[in-house]
Specification:
This protein is an alpha/beta fold. The protein is built from 13 helices and 11 strands. It has an 8-stranded parallel β-sheet. A 3-stranded antiparallel β-sheet has the order 2-3-4, with no helix packed on it. Bound molecules: manganese (II) ion (MN).
Length: about 375
């Protein structure tokens, strides 16, 4: 008898092997793909993307991600980070059942400036990620979509839907300076996603980046790290607001978006702000909806949190039901090694129905094809699900 709380994760990641692009693209294209290089002391990291360099001090000391002996990728924390079978053993140990899985280095793909190059890179990543999903129904992988043109975006949506992907990952803004997600230019993309029945995932740190900044460096000076961390969450909230405010969910009521690694209480807060503007600024608001903005936020937008102590109260006290826990496995901000302690602290005092919704129900509503998690306090019999 174990004493596990089982939970699905609305926020997990694959660790793309260093050699993935070299093995699957012509050399001249592979060299332009995102790659991370650590300084020998592990304190600074440089990410190279299509001739651009992004450099930052890493928030924790890392070991090199390429083994100098074998030239192969290594990851120094979760044993299953680079292995689809060992990963299930990690998940079983932690009490994590199914996962919504994002990319890692692929979050840099949207800083490429050449539409065909971005398409080629996304295709390689998606062809590799789908092998995880085919290995176990507990893996729900996101398809990375190239967003430098509507045509390449729709091309990859249709291709990946045919491969069995259930959800795409989009950056919080499609490009550095082109039309944003609220503009009519993107209508065909939302229609295409609704047609094939795929959801949209937004993840922290997925904005396209300016050449002289690092991922998420918006401020420098005192407090910069905290400000930058907060700003990354804010960009995801805005991505959801763009879809609600421009009427994407009004036109496509079955389309759902998941905001991962950004807490949950921002949804009721945003609902108040948008409803007030919608009601009080009646001459300025366009387009008009059949329902209040808050109704689209509460029904079409889902939020995954990991350590946020206020998040369960979005469900328990603020009427927002689409709250989902997420582990962020195997990233270092995540709960690997302390998942059960974290879950106990976060959901231990909730009613059984509230706890069920956060740990299982919200995820099951998004991905009804996934087999249900084992009962709490038991271990799975068939580890592949
Ligand atoms: Mn994450």
């Amino acid at each position: 008898m174990s004493d596990k709380i089982w939970a699905n994760s609305g926020d997990s990641h694959l660790m793309e092997p260093f050699e993935l692009f070299q093995e699957n693209l012509p050399k001249d294209l592979a060299e332009r793909m995102p790659r991370s290089e650590l300084d020998p002391d592990g304190a600074f990291e440089t990410v190279h993307v299509d001739g651009q360099e992004f450099r930052r001090k890493v928030p924790f000391v890392k070991r090199p991600m390429v083994d100098p002996e074998t030239g192969k990728s290594v990851f120094d924390r979760a044993p299953g980070a680079n292995d689809m079978r060992l990963r299930l053993e990690d998940l079983n140990e932690e009490g994590i059942w199914a996962e919504l899985i994002y990319t890692s280095i692929g979050m840099w793909m949207h800083s490429i400036r050449d539409p065909q190059l971005m398409l080629a890179g996304c295709r390689v990543l998606n062809d590799w990620a789908i092998e995880y999903q085919r290995f176990s129904p507990r893996y729900v992988c996101t398809a990375l979509i190239p967003t430098l043109s509507v045509d390449t975006a729709i091309q990859e949506v249709e291709r990946t839907a045919g491969m069995g992907f259930k959800i795409v990952m989009l950056p919080t803004s499609p490009t550095l300076d082109g039309p944003n997600w609220n503009r009519d230019d993107w209508h065909p993309l939302w229609a295409s996603l609704a047609d094939v029945g795929m959801h949209v995932g937004f993840h922290a740190g997925s904005d396209p980046h300016e050449a002289d900044t690092f991922n998420g460096v918006y401020y420098r000076g005192p407090g910069a790290h905290l400000l930058n961390y907060y700003e990354a969450s804010y960009h995801m909230q805005l991505a959801a607001a763009k879809l609600v405010s421009s009427g994407v969910f009004e036109r496509h009521p079955t389309l759902k978006c998941v905001v991962s690694e950004g807490g949950a209480t921002w949804v009721p807060f945003m609902a108040d702000r948008l409803d007030e503007a919608y009601r009080q600024h009646v001459n300025q608001v366009w387009p008009k909806f059949r329902r209040l903005p808050s109704e689209y936020l509460f029904e079409n937008v889902y939020a995954s949190f990991q350590h946020d102590v206020s998040a369960p109260q979005a469900l328990a006290a603020m009427g927002y039901r689409n709250v989902c826990w997420g582990s962020d496995y195997p990233h270092l901000e995540g709960t690997f090694g302390h998942t059960q302690k974290t879950l106990r602290e976060l959901v231990g005092d909730l009613t059984p129905a509230q706890r069920h919704r956060i740990t299982r129900g919200t995820f099951e509503e998004l991905f009804p094809h996934v087999p249900p998690a084992p009962a709490d306090d038991t271990d799975p019999v068939d580890t592949t699900g």
